[in-house]
Amino acid sequence: MTILTESDEFTVDAANGLWLAAADAARVTGWTLKPEGMCRGDQCVPLASTAVVAGRVDVEAFWRRLGNPVLCSDERETWVLGAGAEERNAALAGLMAPDFTLPDLSGKPHTLSDLRGKKVLLVTWASW
Amino acid sequence: MWQQLFGDLKDHSFAVVAVAVERRGAEHVRPWIEQAKAAYWCLIDPEHRVASLYGMANVPRAVWIDERGRIVRPPETAGSTDHFRNMDQKALTMSAADQAARDAGKAFYVNAVKEWITTGRHGLDAPAAREKLPRITADIALALAHFRLGVWLRRHGAVEEGSRHLAEASRLHPESWNMWRQSADLEAVGRAAGPEFWARVQALGDKPYHKPPDLPGFPT
To answer: What ipTM is given for this predicted complex?
Structure first.
């Protein structure tokens, strides 16, 4: 199945909804399963005892617990683990320009943070 | 629009990053980009990632980023004004006075960027920049998730299901012209600027389509 996050796309093996092996859960979410719950850096979020079974994590339940949006396609084959409002506002309030990598016309990728040391005018436009 | 400015400031440590918000991909925007003869980065953003990261709801939007990578002006219109709202909607023509006013807005904005690059003027300190950040609500965050799924599903052949998620995104985040207009464009090229678009603009009433940038003396 496919999982879409804010800036990535993952193909993972999942069972029965979004139950992922702990290693896949870490790869997709950036949070690691530990005895105290799901952890990132020095922060841990406890999981309900029903959300971990035999080394697999109910990532849907965990993501909702963080207060973040979770969506799936009708056939439950494509999932979105969205960034929540709190996380988005906190990121912006830090005032560090959110980084991204996008291709130019020839497909060559460019990364915003490579321009550190210059003033940058970032502008968007559309043909429509 | 930016090549002249970029050329004028080539002796300064300055970069322009122009991002085409375009689900249809590079080939669709190639003519515009080639015509601009741009020496700066012209990037293609089929997933609207920049809009999502920066909380932009319309185009064109600009963000000023300083040498340390910090936002010193959050997203605002890059000098576009609302004069287009007076245009003849069938002929798509504007009066000479409205065209002049629109051009004056763009010129003023370009000059403000120039002042920032050369003197630092108009760059905001952290509290003032924070004050102007967009506020992302739970509905907007959910809308962004629906938009992401809708775009992906359409790209992978599930057109009807994808459109359903795009419609839900617009319902949750009605202020996002990016979401509504991109979705309309995917239904049919031209629809993003068709009668439904004009009806939505009309429905704004006294509210601006492009809120003027907060620059002292900006002509409105």
So the answer is: 0.95
